TrEMBL record:
Function statement: Catalyzes the ATP-dependent dehydration of threonylcarbamoyladenosine at position 37 (t(6)A37) to form cyclic t(6)A37 (ct(6)A37) in tRNAs that read codons beginning with adenine.
Protein name in UniProt: tRNA threonylcarbamoyladenosine dehydratase 2
Keyword Membrane: yes
GO BP field: cyclic threonylcarbamoyladenosine biosynthetic process
GO terms for cellular component: mitochondrial outer membrane
Family membership noted in the UniProt record: Belongs to the HesA/MoeB/ThiF family.
Sequence intervals crossing the membrane: none
Keywords: ATP-binding, Ligase, Membrane, Mitochondrion, Mitochondrion outer membrane, Nucleotide-binding, Transmembrane, Transmembrane helix
Record-level Gene Ontology MF annotations: ATP binding; tRNA threonylcarbamoyladenosine dehydratase; ubiquitin-like modifier activating enzyme activity
Membrane topology: Multi-pass membrane protein
InterPro entries, sorted: ThiF/MoeB/HesA (IPR045886), ThiF_NAD_FAD-bd (IPR000594), Ubiquitin-activating_enz (IPR035985)
Pfam families registered for this protein in UniProt: ThiF
Length: 509
């Protein structure tokens, strides 16, 4: 060992390695310092509100609504006017003059209904902010804003009213701050928190002082699927009028934006994921959504990959206002959230005012889902009788753990509304794919209290046409043919892929 360390060649090599490491560290440190300096200079270049210092404008906690930056003269004037207007010290003729164009369009009764309405907007980013601004300018008098996030630099390409001076403010405060300068009579109820099912009763409850009045409309402008599904499911179950905005990201064609039923929307990733979750919870239709039919193609923007390190560490961009808040890599053309937001607001205005609406209705498939449930039930009863030696008594009261929502999910989402064998989209049915190797009968209890059910799971079923299902039942489920005897390897692999997809989503039931 001593001879190695005293060897001039070894010493020279070791020196070279150490020198290279030091040089590399110095270069990386210098690059990091340069990056930090650029970021600091950019942040310092954002103008502060008149009369405020850095501490006043620092990023505020998302667990409370902090004070606005020290107001300038314009802010003071706007807030004073809003205080007067909301306390009745504002000439109603001035309000009606400002709303004159809406008044002649909607009529006196329609505008009066809008002015008396109460709307909740959940999500105050690009879509929600434009919807809010349009509703306020159109005559809505009471609006509750729900959002936990703050205005960032990247918000400014699509937010309706935010300015550089608003960076770091909660989005709900930003909207109130800017819109009182336009419509001082509008009352804002600001809720700086994330929507979750546990707080739905509070966030979607009555207006303060009139807790008995439910919202006339709820606007879903959330881009988080979990929260979105919780909100829509709650509104559906409670009978609250709601409209949901789907994904504006990666879209560029405003002529393809439309309003339709949640069960009929397509060519939209957020809509597809939302539909899947809702169908598994029994909500197959009845929720209007704003979505785009634009197809993706070569050269068009697409969702950018997020590095695994980002997922593991929750890394953020250097310009993020909140620490530890992950940056979403979603290309958004600034005009498209505005198109979505105004379409949402337009729907709400027409609904509340009672103006005639001629939207194209969604395809009604509920009867088809119910027919498929009945077919699955009958098919499972036949399988039980076959396994139990032809006994019919074992099928009395047999229950199948499949709902119309499950059927809708499997047919429309997992199997894309087509037969897995031929791709035919008509006369569709669901049936077991593999022949059971043992009994499918599940018994709980005894005698008159015994419950009988099938052990059927979503991932056991395949979508076929009625004719294909009859043949499959005869030759595979009740016969001696194997899947390989009847179907190609391509078909079998396709069915297995669709069933794996169903299994992944089955946990959301």
């Amino acid at each position: 060992m001593a001879s190695l360390t005293s060897n001039p060649k070894v010493q020279l090599a070791a020196t070279a390695v150490v020198s290279a490491a030091i040089a590399a560290g110095a270069i990386l440190s210098y690059q990091r310092l340069q990056q930090d300096d650029r970021v600091s200079r950019l942040k310092r270049s954002i103008p502060q509100p008149s009369g405020s210092d850095d501490d006043d404008h620092a990023a505020q906690s998302v667990t409370r609504i902090g004070p606005l930056p020290k107001p300038d003269k314009e802010d003071e004037h706007n807030q004073a006017l809003a205080h007067r207007a909301q306390n009745g010290d504002f000439d109603d003729e001035l309000i009606l003059e400002q709303l004159a164009r809406n008044r002649v369009f909607l009529g006196d009764a329609g505008l009066a209904a809008l002015r008396a309405a109460f709307v909740v907007i959940v999500g105050c980013g690009g879509v929600g902010s434009h919807a809010c601004a349009a509703l306020a300018r159109s005559g809505l008098a009471r609006v509750r804003l729900v959002d936990f996030d703050q205005v960032t630099l990247s918000s400014l390409n699509r937010h309706a009213v935010a300015t550089l001076a608003d960076v770091g403010l909660p989005k709900v405060q930003c909207l109130q701050r800017r819109l009182v300068a336009v419509t001082p009579w509008v009352r804002f109820d600001l809720r700086l928190q994330k929507f979750e099912g546990a707080v739905a009763d509070v966030l979607l409850g009555g207006w303060e002082g009139d807790e008995g009045q439910r919202p006339d409309f709820v606007i879903d402008a959330i881009d988080n699927i979990e929260s979105k599904v919780e909100l829509l499911k709650y509104c559906h179950d409670q009978g609250l009028p709601v409209i949901s905005a789907m994904g504006a990201g990666t879209k560029s064609d405003p002529t393809r934006v439309m309003v339709g039923d949640i069960g009929a929307s397509f060519e939209d990733g957020l809509s597809r994921a939302t539909r899947r979750r809702l169908k598994l919870q029994g909500v197959t239709s009845g929720i209007p959504v704003v979505y785009s039919t634009e197809k993706m193609g070569e050269g068009k923007a697409a969702l950018l990959p997020l590095a695994e390190a980002e997922f593991q560490k929750g890394s953020v961009g250097d310009l993020g206002v909140l620490p530890d808040f992950r940056v979403r890599i979603l290309p958004v053309l600034g005009t498209m959230p505005a198109v979505f937001g105004y379409t949402v607001a337009n729907h709400v205005i027409l609904k509340i005012s009672g103006y005639p609406m001629d939207y194209q209705p969604a395809k009604a498939r509920d009867k088809m889902y119910e027919a498929i449930v009945a077919y699955v039930q009958a098919s499972e009863e036949k399988i039980v009788r076959m396994i139990e030696g032809g006994r019919t008594d074992v099928c009395i009261g047999l229950k199948v753990p499949i709902t119309p929502g499950d059927i809708a999910f499997l047919v429309e989402e997992a199997f894309r509304g087509r037969s897995a064998i031929t791709g035919i989209p008509t006369k569709l049915m669901l049936i077991r794919w593999k022949k059971p190797e043992e009994t499918t009968l599940v018994r709980i209890g005894e005698g008159s209290t015994e419950q009988r059910s099938s052990n059927l799971r979503l991932r056991d079923l395949v979508c076929l046409t009625k004719e294909e299902a009859v043949r499959h039942q005869k030759k595979v489920l009740h016969g001696d043919k194997t899947l390989e005897d009847l179907y190609s390897r391509e078909v079998i692999e396709l069915v297995e892929a669709r069933q794996q997809e169903a299994e992944a989503y089955e946990r959301h039931r």
